[in-house]
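Our consortium's second objective concerns turning raw sequence data into structural hypotheses that experimental partners can test. To show how far this objective has progressed, the report includes one record in full. It was chosen at random from the queue rather than selected for favorable results. The single chain below, 643 residues long, was entered without modification.
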Amino acid sequence: MELTFTILRLSAMIAALPVDTRPVSPVADGSVFPFALLDHWTVYLVFVLIALLGYQQWRVYQYRQSAARREELFRIVAENAADMIALVDLKGHRLYNSPAYEKVLGYSPEELAKTPVFEQIHPDDRFKVLEAGREARRTGIGKKLEYRVRHKNGAWRILESTASPIKNEVGDVEKLVIVNRDITDRKRAEQQVEQDSFFDGLTGLPNRRLFLDRLGRSFARAQRHPEYRYAVLFVDVDGFEQFNRTLGPQVGDQIITEIGQHLARILRTDDTVARPKGTLPIPDALLSRLGGDEFTILLEFINDPSDAMRVAQRIQLAVTAPFRVDRHDVKTSVSVGIALNKPNQESSEILLQEADVAMRRAKALGGARCELFDEALHTRAVNRLRLETELRTAIDQNQFQILYQPIFSIRNRNITGFEALVRWQHPEKGLISPYQFIEVAENIGLIVAIGNWVLCEACKQIRRWESKYLLQDGSKLTVNLSARQFSHPELAADVRAALQEADIVPSRLQLEITEAVAMADPRLTSTVLEQLKHLGVGISIGDFGAGHSSLNWLRRLSIDELKIDRSLIASMPSDRCSRDVVQLIITVARNLELQAVASGIESAVQLNLLDKIGCALGQGYFFSQPLQPSRAEEMLYEQCVRS
């Protein structure tokens, strides 16, 4: 522009120059030389004018070449960019669409030209797209925006978009350059992370984290509004471990999923059940899976404790309906613990702990029932918690000891073996019976560690007695195995390690499991007993006669001894039926070439009856109570002297 003005000024100057009026001299050919009409300044200005005009044309040419190169560069970038680039006018008409549109959304350029922009945008997102366009035109600044666009196949893709305005010579926005990026996969990944953080992967129900968050909100609301009441229901599937053992973990997972769906369906219609994919009808309740076979329900805005009790009863009634999983007909029951919020409650988690305590009380009473938490339960829970803490300390400080109860020959009163019985030497409470702590040790997962300690100590005791030649041929030391220890996958390896460490003959050790443990899963029992028998140890079935053993399975098991349940021995003097059952057990044992041992003998009458019906071995307080190792050794020594 400045060059043009310069040329015009020069032209005006030339026009203003004085004209030479002298006669023009002819040239040799008779023509007139035009420069003769001008003086030397005029000629100079003409040449300058011509040069400037040429320079202007050269600059115009350069500008056009540069613009062409920039346009080509833009085309190359736009056509090779992964992002979708579009040029639209102020009415939303497409002026240009990069090839990425076809790659991402499936539309050809011809199809895009025929389809209005806003028809492809999700109806719920059109308004915010329009507003973003107006804002960009008004302020000249584009902002990032997320919205959904329909793919050619009908699916919705999520785009992240930025609009940049293009202005004309006077500064008005006349076009928009829109850069769109497909972020569908990223958004799905973010949603999956959120799903994994707050929802259970197996059932799709809210997990512990989300449940505790909602429980905390209820606690805060109750602090602000004392009249607001809520309850927590703790639901646990009865006997779920047996389902896992007998049917396998995959079927167990299907059972948990089915029960979760049952719980979601049977809550009252004015409750909210947190279901997958965010289908929440009314915000009054929350069902979650804490883990394993444990579910929790938060009931809000309840009027009376009976509201929670009715929900619990409906749950128990509904889950008892049989259902089919992987070709298996399954019938389940649940134990439910209920806890209600209190005005002086210290934290939200306390309510969950109280519901857990109530649930465990329901299980202890036989399961398939619901229990409401009260102060008595609280006291028992505190005592149990203290016991758990002290039990962990007992393991660390080696506060356990083993007593040995002799097993006698009923005919000649000779000691044929011992049973190792663990006791807890509490620093304040003295000697504690296993009946007071074995169940707790089972529940908190310490029973395997305690059982292995007993096993190793018993083997070492056998070695000490053998080194002093106190054990007769055939004498055995019996060690009891808990249900959890028996089902532990490393049991055989632990027994082998204990035998090798003590360096004893395996036949000196006998392992005892109860009839209930043996019959819980006969196939698993058969497999484990085969592994143990392969090591050379003896096997005894304890508490025999109290359950419902199958004689067919009994003959298949690799066992050496049946220990008759003490309740049958105690009732023999007054109950003919009990005497007949004991007689039958002894006969079965003899026919299967097994040893029969009567446990819990406490009177001479019981002993005489057992002798008459042919029971060879027995143990109980009539003979001897459990003994310290030193006293047991003295009895063995006295027997050796007598013999």
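The partners drew two points from this record. Residues 499 and 505 are 8 Å apart (CA to CA). Residues 268-283 have pLDDT under 50 and may be disordered. Both points have been shared with the crystallography group to help prioritize constructs.
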